[in-house]
Design brief:
The protein is α+β, with helices and mostly antiparallel strands. The chain has 3 helices and 5 strands. It has a 5-stranded antiparallel β-sheet with strand order 1-2-3-5-4. Keywords: Hydrolase.
Length: about 130
């Protein structure tokens, strides 16, 4: 069965895609640490990022850098966090999010009740910033 992320990439489930390439896709998370929190995901269903081919990992990180620079500009964050955890969905992904302090890296603080309207506005702003 395809992962949740593959279903979003294939448009079988709704998602707010901010960047799309041949091998990598980036979309907003529905439980953000801050505005613009994006997941950068390879199309290939690989569970652990350490198992990605080196060129694909480099592409994922390159996209993460592009998204991070846009998050910094659009949302005025002094830094951008990058976390590779991989426990939520068995599909390699990189979290890219705005950071004002180390507290912004605490996944216990995600906003799981962010409104669809707020996510739509964040999506519009981030896509425009890219």
């Amino acid at each position: 069965m395809p992962t949740l992320f593959t279903q979003i990439i294939n448009r079988e489930l709704p998602g707010r895609i901010v960047w799309e390439g041949e091998r990598v896709v980036a979309f907003l998370t529905i439980a953000p640490l801050g505005p613009g929190h994006t997941l950068v995901v390879p199309r290939d269903e690989v569970d652990d990022w350490t198992e990605l081919a080196p060129d694909l990992l480099a592409e994922v990180m390159g996209v993460a850098g592009t998204i991070g620079a846009a998050i910094k500009r659009v949302f005025g964050a002094p830094r951008v966090g990058l976390v590779v955890a991989g426990f939520e969905v068995p599909h390699a992904h990189v979290h890219v999010f705005p950071a004002w302090s180390m507290a912004d890296f605490d996944f216990a603080r995600v906003d799981s009740e962010v409104s669809a309207a707020e996510l739509d506005d964040t999506h519009r702003r981030l896509v425009a910033g890219l």
